Amino acid sequence: MSVRREIHEYDGIYFITITCSQWLHLFELSNGYEEVYKWFDHLKSMGHFITGYVIMPNHIHVLIAFRNTQGVSINSMIGEGKRFMSYGIVRRLMEKNEEEVLARLTALVNATDRKRGKRHEVFEPSFDWKDCRSNNFIKQKLDYIHANPCRGKWNLVNEETEYIHSSAKYYETGKQGIYLVTKYTELEDIDLTKSL
């Protein structure tokens, strides 16, 4: 369960989980996976690193190595990413005439946000995060996210490497998948406390 907790650091490797409102399968319904990749590209353009990820039908797990954010909070950067992805997902839902889903997302907007002009609640208001301070912990989180599509209720694929919206293929075979990631061991020689 995600809770509102502030990340007080301005650099480091974080395991982030972002969940669609009411666990709706919005990435799948909108085919909105590309919206996540656009956000990843934006983070990379600012000097940050995507170290591992999986985009499930209704949530994202991602390991992000944040280079010094120069006083901008990591929470703000995640919030900005959620807004960015929300616009793309809503646009895609409109293009697919998913009126019932859009109406549901509109009904989820609280009165305060509605007064400020918000029209859809695409993601849960908060996100979950863990500070990754050791390679062992990073490896544990990568194993967890890569196994996601194969276990529990999901069973989307038989093998982790078959799920295309994941970095599992790279970590298992050394061949990049549809989105290029930076292996966490490559970050050992990079001083994340220094900005670009």
Describe the overall structure.
- This protein is α+β, with helices and mostly antiparallel strands.
- The chain has a single domain (12-186), classed as 2-Layer Sandwich (Alpha-Beta Plaits), CATH 3.30.70.
- Helix content is 37%, strand content 14%.
- It has a four-stranded antiparallel sheet with strand order 2-3-1-4, with helices on both faces.
- The longest helix has 22 residues, at 74-95.
- 34% of the residues are buried.
Mean pLDDT: 93
Our estimate of the beta-strand percent is 5-15%
CATH architecture identity: 2-Layer Sandwich
Q: Class, according to the CATH hierarchy?
A: Alpha Beta
Query: What is the radius of gyration computed over CA atoms, rounded to a whole number of angstroms?
Result: 17 Å
Q: What is the CATH homologous superfamily assignment?
A: Transposase IS200-like
Number of helices: 7
What general outline do the C-alpha atoms trace? globular
Q: Order of strands in the sheet with the most strands?
A: 2-3-1-4
Helix residue percentage: 25-40%
Strand elements, count: 4
Helix/strand order, N-terminal first: EHHEEHHHEHH
What would you call the structural class? alpha+beta
CATH topology: Alpha-Beta Plaits
Q: What count of domains describes the coordinates?
A: 1
In angstroms, what separates the terminal alpha carbons?
34 Å
Unreliable stretches covering 5 or more consecutive residues: none
How can the largest sheet be summarized? 4 strands, antiparallel
